[in-house]
Amino acid sequence: MNVRTILKSAALGAGICIFAIGVALAQGGPGAGAGPGAGSGKMRGHEIRKACRDEVKSDLRGSERRDAMKKCIDEKRKAAGVLTREERQARREKAREDMKACREKLKEQRFTEAERRGAMQTCMLEKDPTRAKAMTCRAEAETKKLERGTKEFRDFMRQCNTAP
User: Fold this and answer.
1) 2-24 per-position pLDDT tens digit
2) How many Å apart are CA 126 and CA 104, to the nearest integer?
3) Among positive and negative, which fits the CA dihedral 124, 140, 39, 152?
4) Residue 89: pLDDT band with limits 50, 70, 90
5) Cα dist from 58 to 12, 49, 71, 73, whole Å
């Protein structure tokens, strides 16, 4: 056996160990995954709608039922801390304004592409502490090797963003 074969085998073995540890950590310990949104205290959209369907009287029909469902869903969303469409739109508009202000601030300075990206990110984080919290949570998720778009990533982000 030559040295190259031994090194390849060692690297493959280390990779398998790291993968196995990652899978074990992703599954969590006892009590992990105690239901959807465990630990976040927030209801998801489908959970809110289901709870309202159970709550609203079944004898209501047509526009009365629709109005009762809408009222119930709005109340539960507000109680759960879920943003309304208007609130989300206002947040996006504020982010656009902040980005525009940061661009104006950095306009005259000469940066490389990476430096400009870093300066823009720093400027945006100074303007919006909520975004700063989300960015630190995303960085933590990346260090834990959670893949964006997966349930584990979303659950981690919900829990991290709501933590004090």
Assistant:
1) 777 777 777 676 667 676 676 66
2) 15
3) positive
4) very high
5) 60, 14, 15, 16
Q: How far apart are CA 47 and CA 128, in angstroms?
A: 30
The token pair that represents 77 in the structure block? 């969303």
**Pure H helices in the chain:** 3-27, 45-55, 62-80, 85-106, 113-127, 129-143, 151-162
Provide the mean pLDDT of the chain.
Answer: 79
Q: Cα–Cα distance between 123 and 105 in angstroms, integer?
A: 9
Q: How many CB atoms lie within 10 A of CB 132?
A: 15
Structure tokens at 116: 């400009």
Residues in the chain: 164
Cα separation, 16 vs 19, in Å, equals: 5
Taking the C-alpha atoms of residue 67 and residue 91, their distance in angstroms, rounded to an integer, is 27
**Which token pair is 93?**
């508009």
Do the Cβ atoms of 124 and 97 come closer than 8 Å? Answer: no
Domain ranges within the chain, ordered by starting residue: 41-82, 84-127, 131-164
List pLDDT tens digits, range 11-62: 676 667 676 676 666 665 444 444 444 444 566 777 888 888 888 877 778 8
